Amino acid sequence: MKTLHGFAALGAGLLLGAGAALGIPMCDVAFAESHPASASPQSAEGTTIGIRYYIGDRLKLLIYERLDVPGEPGRPTDGRPHLVERAEFTGTYTVQENGAIVLPMLGDVDVDGRTPNEICKALGDVFYKTFGRSAQASVLLDEREPVYFVGQSVSSGTLKYTPGMTVLHAVANAGLSDNAKGDVYVRMELLREHERQQKARGKLRNLLARDLVLRAELSGGTDVKPDDRLTVLVGAQDANSAIESETKRRQIILESRKPVVDSYSAEVAIATQRKEILLSKLQIADDSVKNREERDSALQNLKTRGDANLFLTAQVKGDLADVRLRRAEILSDISAVELELTRAQKDLARSTAEAKLSLNQDITSIEDEIMETEAVLAGTQHLIDDLDTERFRRGTATNAPTFELVRRTKQGPLRIKADELTELHPGDLVEIIKPADRPIYSSSYEK
């Protein structure tokens, strides 16, 4: 039995190394045996939430069983799971009409409309219920059906399915008649121009709000209100929301600059305080010098009359020299502090001037962008008007063809009313119906 486990561990290591070399995406559905559904799947493939599989898709499955291989006595384990491929389950499976794939011994597993990670979790649950052991799985798309076309305006045929394909994308790539091609071209151009218009409108909204916030900052105002241009463009509620958003954005920028300004302001305050202290010391030194000079003058008068004490006279002269020296040192310190104060004031003034200059440059740049965006907005509106006129001239405004889909579901084929933006599934049949060919809808149609 130990030998079997040893071979299993060796095979698992080889499989893991090969899987890493090939870059096979693994959906981690290895559940704890005491709580089968407690673990959450984690996978590189599972992060692509938009991928879903449908009836008719061919999927390649790889299933690995997790083995608890005992470690050798006295040697720590590496903590990695030991996986062995279950070859009897590995293979390519087609999603059946009931939306499930059928695996030997595991039975039906529903996959229709599910993401790879959801399928991996379902496989892990079924494996645990069947064998009582944990497993990991990988799901890869091997093949999927195309989209089919029928109708009088299109050459019947197929088109390779791509994720996110809509009816209009598909019809634009089909073999249409010249008139139908022109109609589809007009519609697609209208969609593109409407998209450009929406993007330009959103950009202009942000630019106008930013311009108002910056101008209020330049003038020292704090309460920013939307102007008529912004209100007419997006409405009062959205205008206030845009200004609030731009105000918060600007506040973040100002907060990032604040430490530099505070540093310069602190240097100015410290230098000013030091200068005041030194000026106070200078005043005391001046008083001391004056006092010593008066005493020295009095002793000189006494010396002239012959009544002076020579020792006291020498002491007063020494004190006077010391006080004058301290006064000179204070004057030197005041000069140094004044230089520091001047430099700090210049740094603060330069920082303020640079901020104001940057603010003016931002406003100028935004004004240029506003003009460009307004030109784009006007151009798209002009083109939309021209395309609408072309649609009316072609008669597409009232006589546009409609679209219907025939889609396979678990309940059987279903006919669905569709428009240009209806998203297609693999295997869908798109029918283009002219106004004269449009059938009378019955209860079998999905409204």
Would you give an account of this structure?
The protein has 447 residues and is an alpha+beta fold. The protein folds into 3 domains: 2-143, wza like fold, CATH 3.30.1950.10; 145-176 and 401-447, Outer membrane lipoprotein wza fold like, CATH 3.10.560.10; 257-394, Helix Hairpins, CATH 1.10.287. It contains 8 helices and 12 strands. The strands form 3 sheets. Strands 8-7-11-9-10-12 form a 6-stranded mixed beta sheet. Strands 1, 2, 3 and 6 form a 4-stranded antiparallel beta sheet that branches. Strand 9 and strand 10 (412-418) form a beta hairpin. Helix 4 (178-219) packs antiparallel against helix 5 and helix 6 runs antiparallel to helix 7 (310-394). The longest helix has 85 residues, at 310-394. It is elongated and about 135 Å long.
Task: Based on the coordinates given, report the CATH architecture of the largest domain.
Answer: 2-Layer Sandwich
- Helix count from the secondary structure assignment: 8
CATH topology of the largest domain: wza like fold
- CATH top level label of the largest domain: Alpha Beta
Unreliable stretches (pLDDT < 50, length at least 5) are 1-26, 28-49, 437-447
Quaternary structure state of the chains depicted: single chain
Q: How many E strands? A: 12
Helix content: 55-70%
The amount of beta strand, in percent, is: 5-15%
What is Rg? 42 Å
Largest sheet: 6 strands, mixed
Kindly state the mean pLDDT as a whole number?
A: 77
Specify the CATH homologous superfamily of the largest domain: wza like domain
The global form is: elongated
